[in-house]
Design goal:
Strand order of the largest sheet: 1-3-2
Helix content: 55-70%
Distance between the termini: 56 Å
Largest sheet: 3 strands, antiparallel
Mean pLDDT: 88
Structural class: mainly alpha
Shape: elongated
Strand content: under 5%
Number of strands: 3
Radius of gyration: 19 Å
């Protein structure tokens, strides 16, 4: 737990080191994260902009409402996701929920499907990189694809539904896919 937090915090904040003044706060943050790796990663990703004591306090204050039969760490992960989501800028929150419309994305798909007047395509890469720095999305493979960790994707999908954007994003994704298939088919038949 501590090693994971320290490693991720050092990535988020150059020069981060476990010291006398931060040790207790790191232990408190790991406890508040329930010892769950995803929750610890989300908490540690904020070490670049927040004091570790504030991270621990934020996680501890987030309401934990486990469903009957849930694994004990499920509430801690949900709390870490909710708290991390609240730390995002409004545009990052919009991007995150829209990313839940598909299991993985390329930058081109993000620009064509997730973007609109509220979220211009020109800032898509910056938003993806911000979300990755916050441990909310991950690069997948070497082909420039992005994915949401499953628990974050589930939370983002609920937020997409609450925002009333499921059908709009579904149509955009369908239209993009149809255009891409038509383009690739035209290449094949042009030979």
């Amino acid at each position: 737990d501590l090693r994971l937090f320290i490693s991720r915090a050092a990535s988020a904040a150059s020069g981060f080191a476990l010291g006398r003044e931060t040790c207790e706060a790191v232990v408190a943050a790991c406890r508040a994260a329930g010892g769950m790796p995803l929750a610890i990663e989300l908490a540690a990703a904020r070490a670049g902009g927040l004091d570790v004591a504030r991270i621990a306090a934020g996680l501890s204050a987030w309401p934990r409402l486990p469903a009957p039969g849930d694994h004990p760490g499920t509430a801690a992960v949900a709390a870490a996701i909710g708290w991390s989501h609240d730390q995002l800028a409004p545009a990052e929150q919009v991007m995150l929920r829209r990313l839940s419309a598909s299991p993985s994305w390329t930058l081109e798909i993000v620009e064509r499907v997730c973007s609109d007047d509220q979220l211009p395509a020109v800032g898509s890469l910056g938003l993806l990189e911000s979300l990755a720095a916050a441990a909310m999305v991950r690069r997948h493979g070497t082909q420039g694809r992005w994915q949401l960790p499953r628990a974050i994707g589930d939370d983002a999908a609920a937020r997409l539904s609450a925002a009333g954007e499921v059908q709009v994003l579904g149509r955009r994704l369908r239209d993009y896919t149809a255009q891409r298939v038509a383009y690739l088919t035209s290449i094949v038949y042009a030979r």
